[in-house]
Amino acid sequence: MPAATHAPPPLHVAIDDLPDGLIVSDRLGRILAVNHAATRLTGVGAEQALGRDMAEVFPFRDNDGREWWKALDAPGGLRIRTRIPEQSLHLPGGPELYVSARLVRRPARSGDVERVTIMLRDSGARARLERSRANLVSTVAHELRSPLTSVKGFTATLLAKWAHLTAEQKLVMLETINTDADRVTRLITELLDVSRIESGRLKIHRQVVDLPGRVRRLIAGRVAAGETEDRFRLVVSADLPETWLDQDKIDQILGNLVENALRHGLGTVTIEVQSVDWGVAVSVRDQGKGVEPELAAHVFRQFWRGNSRRRGGTGLGLFIVKGLVEAHGGTIAVQRAPEGGAEFRFTMPAGAPEFA
């Protein structure tokens, strides 16, 4: 005989377990329930509200001062109406809230309203998201305007006056166009990385990575690009464990941290790779002014640039670094370096991944 199967017991969720505010009233507006989240958002507890009139206890108004509950007219209106779209409302002297409602009918189709469930959400998180999006649009517009204006101007000049320009003038213009095109490409790449990090779509392709070798390759590239060799110092501890990481993303992490040290720091940039209890730690230190302790919590946020006004930074690099490190299961922090500059230290887990 087949093994007997047992259906799981029905799940009963307490209204205080809900992350959003919940108020329940009957069709006439007598309050039946108020959860903890609603109390936190409105300042009105269940003991103050139960059994009382909705319009009296929660006199929500829209931005034009209209009374929301009165306009809702739960018993009236179309009998097929069941959902009230989310609106921005507020209590007198209280914060802005996003409020939506559902009219529960019996029978469900075209029946009388039995009760009204009202959901409340804090407007603060959404306002922060909207500000972040506005900052993103502003940053993209600002960062794209300058290189695209340059590319357009020099291209138009080359097309119109090619025969009258010297070879040296043409070379300068083409080099500028190439540099600004790289800048646009870099910005687009950063925006795609931000999108993948925020949406959780970042994929890690693990392989054995020689961290000191990647650092040496990075330093060689910076020296070839014009930095002096004595600007860098590499310190590697013995007996490093094997690390399975995404090589391209490790290069991106190291490149962003070294670029940050070169742009904002002074003196020698020291990269130290050492073994720690559960993996490998990499520190990138400079000898500049460093990061003030009260600002340490802000440096990995989007668009953070500190007091720097130097051209070329979008304020996304360290946000991306943190996302890439955490996608590997690692951690990253910033502190004051022994020489007084900034020290960015990230730690990656060692050993082969579970699928290996």
General shape: elongated
Q: Number of helical segments? A: 9
Strand order of the largest sheet: 2-1-5-4-3
Ends distance: 40 Å
Unreliable stretches, pLDDT < 50, 5 or more residues? none
Mean pLDDT: 86
Oligomer: single chain
Q: Radius of gyration, Cα only, in angstroms? A: 29 Å
Which structural class matches the secondary elements? alpha+beta
Helix share, percent: 25-40%
Secondary structure: number of strands? 12
**Element order, helices and strands?**
EEHHHHEEEHHEHEEHEEHEE
Q: Give a short account of the largest sheet.
A: 5 strands, antiparallel
The portion of residues forming beta strands comes to 15-25%
Q: How is the secondary structure organized here?
A:
Blueprint lengths: L20 E6 L4 E4 L1 H7 L3 H4 L4 H4 L10 H5 L10 E8 L5 E11 L5 E11 H39 L5 H33 L7 E2 L2 H14 L7 E5 L7 E2 L1 H18 L4 E8 L2 E7 L31 H11 L3 E6 L5 E8 L7
Parallel strand pairs: 7-9
Antiparallel strand pairs: 1-2, 1-5, 3-4, 4-5, 6-8, 9-10, 10-12, 11-12
Overview of this protein structure:
- The protein is of the alpha+beta class and 356 residues long.
- Helix content is 38%, strand content 22%.
- The chain is built from 9 helices and 12 strands.
- The protein has helices at residues 36-42, 46-49, 54-57, 68-72, 123-161, 167-199, 211-224, 247-264, 317-327; strands at 21-26, 31-34, 83-90, 96-106, 112-122, 207-208, 232-236, 244-245, 269-276, 279-285, 331-336, 342-349.
- The strands form 3 sheets. It has a 5-stranded antiparallel beta sheet.
- Strand 1 and strand 2 (31-34) form a beta hairpin.
- Helix 5 packs antiparallel against helix 6 (167-199).
- The longest helix has 39 residues, at 123-161.
- It is elongated, with a radius of gyration of 29 Å.
- The chain starts with 20 loop residues before the first strand and ends in a 7-residue tail after the last strand.
